[in-house]
Batch of 2 targets.
Target 1
Amino acid sequence: MSSTARREAPNEVHAAVGGLVLGALYVIMVIVVDGVVMKLTWNWFVPVIFAGAPHLNLAQAIGLGLVPTAFFGSARPWKKSTPEESVALMKGAAFKYVTILVLGYIIHAYFL
């Protein structure tokens, strides 16, 4: 019985480590995919709307994607709310995100 318990313990450790590695890879993949989407969207729209706005590289796009989360908390705070609260929170989050983009452009254009 004790030999069976000794064999199961390493398997549990390997499973936990494997889960952590897969979770970390998933998070990295989501961050990179989000950065690519943000980069493509920014480079497609912003230089056309705001003449002279710079194009972003991947690292800048990932950083820009993390700014709202750093300032305002979770990327999806409306997950545990009623439908009415969800709509209000999404509108607020969109307004905050656009505000950060506009302020970033103004700071870059006039102060840097």
Target 2
Amino acid sequence: MRIKQIALKNFRCFRLANIDLSADIVAIYGRNGVGKTAFFDAIEFALLGSIGRFADEPAPPDYLPHVFSDDKAVVHIDFKDNTDNWVNLTILIWKVVEVGEIIMSYCMNF
């Protein structure tokens, strides 16, 4: 099973992005700070529920939503196979000065 498309809304540096991965070969490249790592973080978080490189942080992950947005972060992944499989992750975060809360809502069609 391959990822066909990923849609990001308010996830890290992405306000709104639809990334087509349906080609046989896909290259992810760009300058520093444009979102290459955030793209892979979105896939890892949607499929595994966490981001391994932030596993040692004691506080809830306040790095997930876009910094200039108060809306929820959404990651939607469509898979390329003979079915219509997809995974949708919605992250609701209330930004409080010292205390954060995260609610993850998984909607999986497998």
